[in-house]
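Reviewer 2 asked us to include a model.

Predict the structure of this chain.
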Amino acid sequence: MNSYLDSSYKFALIGGGFCLIAFILFGSLGYDAANFSMLLGYILTPVFLFVGIRFFKKYYNEGYLSFAHGMSVGFLIYMGIALVSGLGILIYLVLNPEAFETLKALKLQVLEVNEEMIKNQVGEESFAITLKNVQQMKPLDIALNDFLWKIVPGLFFTIIISIILRKNKI
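Predicted model (structure tokens):
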């Protein structure tokens, strides 16, 4: 287990750090930081998973990689990325309430601009519930959403990358 952790933590910290930096940077530029961080996570997570699993295979496991090895290392990487990013976003939003209020206002503005389209697609009752939920949103909600949306694609990409990089002993 130690070799799994030792080979994966670097990739998790760097990947999560990039997502957190993107969140802060895009937020300071006036964009919806939550969406941009999530999008960057979809791009960075498979890259860090591939490099991290390949690193484990080459430097910690003598060129051998079973599906279970790949899934274990991948799990540690994508969970680490999600934890660093989610906790970092939570801390940042708690320490900078004006950044949270700006993000919340952007989300309310999107709902306002697209109100008719949303009502036509999901109905007025669903729109009203969504509006109420966004108005009552807390920093934890944004951080938790980011955390969860790093795990879902992380699992998907880990399965694919583990199959691609798998090499059994003969």
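The chain has seven helices and no strands. The helical segments are 2-28, 33-60, 67-95, 97-113, 115-122, 124-135, 139-165. We have added this to the supplementary material.
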